[in-house]
Design a protein that fits this description.
Helix content: 40-55%
Low-confidence stretches: 8-31
Oligomer: single chain
CATH class of the largest domain: Alpha Beta
Number of strands: 8
Distance between the termini: 113 Å
Largest sheet: 6 strands, antiparallel
Strand order of the largest sheet: 5-4-3-8-7-6
């Protein structure tokens, strides 16, 4: 040994090589510059793409909300109030309660009595873990006493220390057009079946 410090680091797979104060991964040492660039770019893309997808999704939701198609609601089980839905109720249903926060009783009074059991069942299924989300289609009363079909989706976003839900949030949208379309399609299918049956009877007689 001549006492001269060996500047050449030893490389061990799965570990970092050290030269002075710089840590150089083995994978980098053994990869050509183009490979390093490609790997770094791929890693960068993996980090960026989820963020872009989330921002794009948020922008689409904001646009839909702005156009009045979708309402956002936030339900606090602690004080039994629903936040953020008042403006949608005003736009779509025509009710103006003069308060941005609605009570559960006010919201429940807008729901068709025959549909309440379905909603409660879907909520229980989500609370128990049987269903990943709350999803229900039901009728709500407009100011002019007519009924609209709406589609509601929600999910628990907060639980207490005991695991009980304390906050749910989600969306609701007017689904009347879709409902009318499907009902019209079902009626047309039923009518076609009726005429086909009549034709078959006439042909056999």
């Amino acid at each position: 040994m001549n006492g001269k410090k060996n500047d050449t680091p030893e490389f061990y797979p799965g570990h970092n090589a050290v030269r002075g104060s710089d840590k150089i991964p083995v994978a980098v040492i053994e990869t050509d510059p183009e490979g390093i660039t490609s790997a770094n770019q791929a890693s960068h893309d993996r980090q960026i793409k989820p963020g872009l997808a989330l921002r794009e999704s948020e922008e689409r939701l904001k646009l839909a909300v702005k156009m009045g198609d979708i309402g956002i609601w936030d339900f606090s089980l602690k004080d039994k109030t629903v936040h953020d839905i008042s403006s949608w109720v005003s736009r779509i249903l025509g009710h103006d309660f003069g308060n941005p926060v609605l009570s559960v009783e006010t919201c429940s009074d807008l729901i068709h009595p025959e549909d309440l059991p379905l909603i409660r069942s879907r909520v229980r299924d989500h609370f128990s873990g049987t269903a990943p989300i709350i999803e229900a289609e039901f009728r709500v009363r407009c100011r002019d006493r007519s009924w609209k079909w709406v589609l509601l989706n929600g999910i628990v976003i907060e639980r207490d220390d005991s695991g009980h839900p304390v906050r749910i949030t989600g969306t609701v949208r007017d689904n009347s057009s879709s409902r009318i379309y499907h009902e019209f399609g079902a009626e047309m299918e039923s009518s076609c079946s009726f005429f086909d049956s009549r034709a078959a009877i006439q042909k056999s007689s």
